[in-house]
Design a protein that fits this description.
The complex is a heterodimer of chains A (about 120) and B (about 500). With about 120 residues, chain A is mainly alpha-helical. In chain A, about 45% of the residues lie in helices and about 5% in strands. The chains are: A mainly alpha (about 120), B alpha+beta (about 500).
Chain lengths: ~120, ~500
């Protein structure tokens, strides 16, 4: 067990106080930007102050995505798939109940042979 | 190790960082608990065990707070300006890294300062990875400029089964990529910002690259650049793969050995110049810090530089050097700056290898020193002990991150490290003298080529030996934990046995 002398204990407490103060100031500065500086998009990587771990750390999307289980938001992370096409894919999936092959995506408005080739690597069944 | 109090502090801090993702309490609550514990720690000032108890708790909690604070992005972080559909944006930024020239693009990291919203420029913060597809532009570290391109979040492509590209960039503090097309606009303001040392190091590195290119063959160039300048982009993939298989790929990363050689050269040069001890140590500290920037300030070289500085400052103040304290201080200085470094393979390997050498090799060498061996055998066994200790310490982590287990690594390191030392010294002489005396440059370049050729041939031979390496897929954390548990148990058993035999011999 380390045996700190009185001087060492003083130094340790002072260093701890400085670091704790510094972390507090850093966190305060990050969370206290004036409204005019806040981003126009509500796509912040962080959740509100109650949890400080960015959402991207907790639930990260790994490709390939399952066409039969991916959510609309997950589908939108595929390059070339926007909100409209993602919604159409989900609607078609609900109609068909299940995609049996990736080529079924050709039935979605906005996905042609070229786009299908481009997104094939990002999806699976 | 018990005389090294920084080890306990460092381990407590690391424990806090690892625990942070599992703790979902609000930051303010944790901060209040921290302040309360700090008060208790101060109140228990005169009671040794209680003070230690609260100190450890404080440091664990500080680790948690640092990790959580690092994960929080400021409201005006550039990542919050990433639109859902890759909008064209204009940002004012400063180049903060060296420029990587890839096939179709130039890539570098910049620090965003302002973003154009409408007609106004609003202040922002954060690092951005820039991919510029217009190779007509030339960028230099510290340049301030206006960049117009498409800003988007990195795609989470899987790099391995444990890591994806978005996570990989996030650990470096990068949450957005700016893609500048061939028609994209870049406007230079003419101002240069950034660290003066880094700028000077950048200029010198450029000149060193020119000298290396002038005098070395294309095959040697990549290896020498990796060993001396910390630039691994030119190393051939097949050669890199061979080094990975023999467990000697660490020689392509600037680390302790390189920093040690730099210190030796500097101290030798300064003693020849008859500079006093005090000034020798001060100059050596300055030079190795400069060398750290010169090689791109990667984790391994930062670790080695921090330890070397502690050693040299200790010599300057005429104090004893305590290796575990120095190692812990280096780890703390890196983790306080960026707690996410704990998850980096480079950080883990860098520190575990040094710790294993200090702990295991130290004991084996002490054991060998007490025995009588033929001349030369002791040195050989000590050298073998160092290589074996480093391999035992890093094998588990290498298996986990890279899915490879190299039994040939012990022999390979013993054969290859001497070549590394010769190539590094040769390379420094080439850079230092080759730029001034062309004739010397040709001779030094030829000898460097020869040593690199021998190094690659030996490495290739070793990688082709039967059972030189084994490749695995999906090594879980359980396997790694079990591996280290077995190693630690074996070490403890051996220590108990050695102590028993020593007690017996004392009684006799």
């Amino acid at each position: 067990m380390p045996n700190f002398s009185f001087e060492e204990r003083k130094v340790l407490i002072i260093i701890l106080v400085i670091f704790v103060f510094g972390v507090g100031v850093s966190w305060y500065r990050k969370n206290s930007c004036p409204e005019s500086f806040s981003a126009p998009y509500n796509l912040s990587l962080q959740k509100p102050a109650s949890t400080s771990v960015p959402a991207s750390y907790k639930k990260d999307i790994l490709f390939p995505l399952s066409l039969n289980f991916a959510s609309r938001e997950q589908l939108q992370t595929i390059p070339g798939i926007g909100p409209a096409i993602a919604a159409r894919i989900v609607d078609l999936r609900q109609k068909k109940q299940k995609f049996k092959q990736i080529e079924d995506l050709l039935e979605v408005k906005g996905i042609g042979p070229k786009k299908l080739e481009a997104i094939k690597g990002f999806v699976c069944l | 190790m018990m005389e090294s109090p920084l080890v306990l502090i460092c381990l407590s801090f690391i424990f806090g960082i690892i625990l942070a993702p599992a703790i979902s309490a609000p930051f303010l609550l944790l901060y209040s608990v921290q302040v309360f514990l700090l008060v208790l720690c101060a109140l228990s000032f005169f009671r040794r065990r209680l003070f230690l108890f609260f100190l450890v708790f404080n440091i664990v909690l500080l680790g948690i707070l640092c990790a959580k604070n690092q994960a929080v992005l400021p409201k005006n972080h550039i990542a919050n300006y990433v639109a859902p559909d890759k909008e064209l944006v204009t940002i004012q930024a400063v180049v903060d890294s060296e420029i990587t020239n890839k096939k179709k693009k130039l890539s570098f990291i910049c620090i965003a300062e302002k973003i154009k919203i409408g007609d106004k420029f609003l202040p922002v913060r954060g690092r951005v990875l820039v991919d510029c597809y217009n190779k007509d532009y030339s960028f230099v570290y510290g340049q301030e400029m206006l960049l117009t391109g498409r800003l988007y979040r990195p795609y989470p492509f899987a790099i391995s089964d444990k890591l994806n590209y978005r996570q990989f960039l996030a650990r470096q503090g990068i949450f957005a990529i700016l893609s500048i097309s061939k028609k994209g606009e870049v406007e230079f303001s003419g101002k240069t910002k950034g660290n003066i040392l880094k700028r000077a190091a950048d200029v010198l590195r450029g000149k060193a690259e020119i000298i290396i290119e002038r005098y070395l063959s294309p095959q040697s160039r990549g290896i020498v650049e990796a060993m001396i300048l910390g630039k691994r982009t030119a190393v051939l993939r097949t050669i890199n793969q061979d080094f990975v298989r023999t467990g000697t790929v660490h020689i392509l990363a600037v680390s302790g050995l390189h920093v040690g050689i730099v210190i030796l050269i500097v101290m030798a040069g300064l003693s020849v110049a008859k500079i006093t001890h005090k000034w020798r140590y001060l100059l050596a500290i300055f030079i190795i810090i400069f060398y750290c920037f010169f090689t791109g300030a990667r984790l391994s070289v930062v670790r080695a530089t921090a330890m070397a500085c502690v050693f040299l400052i200790g010599m300057l103040l005429e104090r004893d050097y305590e290796p575990y304290n120095a190692l812990s201080l280096a780890a703390l200085s890196i983790l306080v700056a960026n707690p996410a470094n704990i998850y980096q393979a480079g950080f883990q390997l860098s520190f575990i290898s040094v710790f294993s050498i200090f702990y295991l090799a130290g004991r084996i060498i002490k054991f060998i020193a007490k025995r009588e061996f033929l001349f030369g055998v002791k040195s050989f066994l000590s050298y073998f002990a160092i290589s074996l200790s480093a391999w035992l310490g890093t094998a588990g982590i290498v298996m986990y991150h890279f899915g490879i287990f190299s039994p040939v690594s012990v022999l390979a390191n013993m054969m290859i490290i001497p070549f590394l030392a010769v190539i590094v010294v040769n390379g420094f002489l080439l850079i230092g003298l080759g730029g001034i005396f062309k004739g010397l440059g040709v001779i030094l370049g030829a000898s460097c080529d020869f040593f690199v050729y021998c190094l690659c041939k030996i490495n290739l031979f070793l990688s082709r030996l039967p059972y030189a390496y084994f490749e695995f897929e999906n090594i879980g954390k359980g396997v790694v934990v079990s591996y280290y548990f077995i190693i630690i148990a074996a070490v403890i058993l051996l220590r108990v046995r050695v102590k028993r035999s020593e007690r017996l011999t004392r009684r006799l």
